[in-house]
Design goal:
By secondary structure, the chain is α/β, with parallel strands linked by helices. The chain has three domains: about 5-145, 3-Layer(aba) Sandwich (Rossmann fold); about 150-260 and about 290-310, no CATH class; about 315-380, RNA polymerase sigma factor, region 2, helix turn helix motif (Rna Polymerase Sigma Factor, Chain: A). The protein has 17 helices and eleven strands. Strands 4-3-2-1-5-6-7 form a seven-stranded parallel β-sheet, with helices on both faces.
């Protein structure tokens, strides 16, 4: 029986690659949603013929509605339209929205009875992880990670005994384009240099996060939520080749690693086809061509973002939300070339200090903390 798939964030890097996977394996695309990329979404509507689509930007949605008036696709608009896509009947919902904007649709999907959420939106778990995982448990839904690192951990744990007996999770990081640079050198790096990731083809925001190591800090928080482990059992190692995507060490000191070429279509596909495996569009891994695999400790002095994430996780409550919001704003400002690369770290530190230690007890409290942290970043600039 043909499976149906809906995608939030369909015009972004993950969404586009997910549609490649869907086409290869014969998924029926039921619904698509994006932010404001009407031209790209029109092309996807014509190619995949979903029953409904949505753009968060109201004006772009109005134009799209006219552009696809000759199709059978109903076009919705605004944040509510995106949430309607999240509720639409489908076998699998892939959430590839960037940022905290993905939180409400994730919760909407879980409370509407979705049984599988393929989650590529790490900010959902950073800002509302306890709420999301509790809702998933109560609804009986599966949250399958799409991030390459968490997919790797998920796959390694499939080989674990029923009681798992995990000693630690080891997340790998490429180190980004500025590996082994000192703090003083980072003062003058350019936007163009930052966006040249050595291994992965990703969107601009996540590429900047990789360069600051913030991405890995967010992934520590994500791993804690996904795998229900204390952060003390989450390690990070720099692995320049991006061949080992992450590892799990068990109590007997045996370490399992998931390996493959750095191609996001592999973890995307596994989240969609799980528990089955299928032929992939990704090239096969040839270790003889790789030659060597290297590993280094992270430089937390030069790149403090990862430890700031650990501090926010230890403090708990709304601290991770504020830190994530400040990062989203800081990265936006850097992409607009309004601040320097190193200003991102300063703004993160200040956001963590500014946020009171309050519980993340509701989605309203989470969005309020997010809004306040963003406003303070912009006031400082």
């Amino acid at each position: 029986m043909q499976k149906t798939l809906s995608i939030l964030g369909s015009t972004g890097s993950i969404g586009v690659q997910a549609l490649e996977v869907a086409k290869q394996h014969g998924f029926k695309v039921a619904a698509l949603a994006a932010g404001r990329s009407g031209y790209e979404l029109e092309s996807q509507i014509r190619a995949f013929k979903p029953a409904i689509a949505a753009l968060e930007d109201e004006q772009a949605a109005r134009l799209l509605r006219i552009a696809v008036g000759d199709t059978f696709t109903k076009v919705l608009s605004g944040p509510q339209g995106v949430c309607e896509i999240a509720q639409a009947p489908t076998d699998i919902l892939l959430n590839a929205i960037v940022g905290i904007a993905g939180l409400r649709p994730t919760l909407t999907a879980l409370t509407s009875g979705k049984k599988r959420i393929a989650l590529a939106n790490k900010e959902t778990l950073v800002t509302g992880g306890e709420l999301v995982m509790r809702t998933a448990k109560d609804s009986g839904a599966s949250v399958i990670p799409v991030d390459s690192e968490h997919s790797a951990v998920f796959q390694c744990l499939l080989a674990a005994p029923p009681d798992q007996k995990i000693k630690k999770i080891i997340l790998t990081a490429s180190g980004g384009p500025f590996f082994r640079k000192g703090r003083q050198e980072l003062e003058t790096v350019t936007l163009a240099q930052t966006l040249k990731h050595p291994n992965w083809n990703m969107g601009a925001k996540i590429t900047v996060d990789s360069a600051t190591m913030m991405n890995k800090g967010l992934e520590i928080i994500e791993a804690v939520r996904l795998f229900d482990l204390p952060q003390e059992q989450i390690d990070v190692v720099i692995h320049r080749e991006s061949i080992i995507h992450s590892m799990v060490e068990f109590c007997d000191h045996s370490v399992l690693a998931q390996m493959g070429t750095p191609d996001m279509r592999v973890p995307i596909q596994f989240a969609l086809t799980f528990p089955d495996r299928a032929p992939s569009l990704s090239p096969s891994l040839d270790l003889t061509k790789i030659g060597n695999l290297s590993f280094y400790p992270p430089d937390d002095q030069t790149f403090p973002a990862m430890n700031l994430c650990r501090e926010s996780l230890k403090a708990g409550g709304l601290k991770p939300t504020a830190l994530n919001a400040a990062n989203e704003e800081a990265v936006r400002l850097f992409l607009e070339e309004k601040i320097r690369f190193t200003d991102i770290f300063t703004l993160l530190e200040e956001a963590l200090d500014d946020q009171p230690a309050l519980p993340a007890e509701s989605i309203e409290a989470i969005f309020e903390a997010d809004s306040v942290a963003r406003r303070k970043v912009n006031e400082k600039i």
